[in-house]
Amino acid sequence: MSVFSKIWNFLKGLISRPGLQQFLAKYMAVAVRLLKDLADTHSNQEFHEWKDLAFRELQAITGELKGNWISILIGLAYEELKARNQSSAASHQ
């Protein structure tokens, strides 16, 4: 588990509403996997160019109508994905 994940797990229990916390716990792994797949598919494009696609796909997967929750999920999943990539790159050096 990355340092980011450990910090997030601690903080989410302190500051998030119960519904949001459950939503994030349920869909974080799905979001990270989706963002990884989209990043691989759109490898020559910046994140901001395909994050709307991620938003629509996650909204369909989760059935969630609250755009804020989807946006929070995407932001956290993207940070988790970057942390994993940095950790992976560091271990290969």
How many structural domains can be distinguished in the coordinates? 1
Give the SSE string.
HHHH
Count the DSSP helices: 4
First and last CA, distance:
19 Å
Strand percentage lies at: under 5%
Cα shape: flat
Overall residue-averaged pLDDT value: 85
Contiguous runs where pLDDT drops below 50 for at least 5 residues: none
- Structural class, judged by helices and strands? mainly alpha
Could you characterize the architecture of this molecule?
It is flat, with a radius of gyration of 14 Å. With 93 residues, the chain is an all-alpha fold. Helix 2 packs across helix 4 and helix 3 packs across helix 4 (67-91). The chain is built from four helices and no strands. The chain has one domain (3-91).
